[in-house]
Amino acid sequence: MAAFDVVLLLLLGALDAAAAVAHHVLNLSGSAELAGWQHRGWLKQVAQREPALAELHQPETDHERALTILRLLRNSVHGESLAPLTVRRRRGERTLVGLPLAKQVRLMSNIAALGGADSWGVEEVIPGRFHADTGALIEQLLPRVLSALNATMEATPVERLAHVALRPENLKPPEGKDYQALGERERLSVRWQLGL
Length: 196
Known about the structure:
- By secondary structure, the chain is of the alpha+beta class.
- The chain has one domain (about 1-195).
- It has seven helices and four strands, in the order H-H-H-H-E-E-H-E-E-H-H.
- It has helices spanning about 1-25, 40-50, 50-55, 60-75, 105-115, 135-155, 185-195; strands at about 85-90, 90-100, 120-125, 130.
- Strands 1-2-4-3 form a four-stranded antiparallel sheet.
- Strand 3 (about 120-125) and strand 4 form a beta hairpin.
- The radius of gyration is 19 Å and the shape is globular.
- The mean pLDDT is about 85.
């Protein structure tokens, strides 16, 4: 459960950092601490300056749905916690996490739109309560959140920042024999960082 909480925290933190960068790049009003893709008022400001960036996080887009699932699970620290449930069956014992009851309808709606309960490892173990396998949740959430983060960073016009002068060669991976984007050293580093 602690590791699951850390993954949620870091993923949401990365999206919040991308929002803070966008806030500064677009020179939006108000504090960057209030920047967030889930905040409709802030997103309206983004839309006025960079419509394509705001469009990525509009309601009912895959990016917005993934962020909503992440946010509702992560924000349980402010309310009902994600309680573990041990399930014993003939095949052995599993520990599932309970989806916050107050957020269950929204969570299940977004999960249904992104592949359904089975693919997310969600099941109704106790009538009226949904629980999920944390591994399946992360397997579904991680690529979706990273996709949203990559699209967000790509659409954020960082070249507008003061003292930034990007040339065409700056928009490609570095060249040289010492850099291999998918080299074994880099792959090993990623595996270690993900704990694989």
